Amino acid sequence: MNPDGDEGNEEIKQLINHNLKEVFAELEDDGMPGEIMDLLSVLRAQDLEGKEQK
Hints:
Layout: H1 9-28, H2 34-53
């Protein structure tokens, strides 16, 4: 069991994370404004930092 008491919680988080990454990857190809691309770069960097800390 997860510390928060919900066994499927981590699996759900991973599924949501995967789906969001797919959506943003598709949107990147649609020519988004520079501000959105900058935000995506920041979010990717934070994601990598989080993975390195685990």
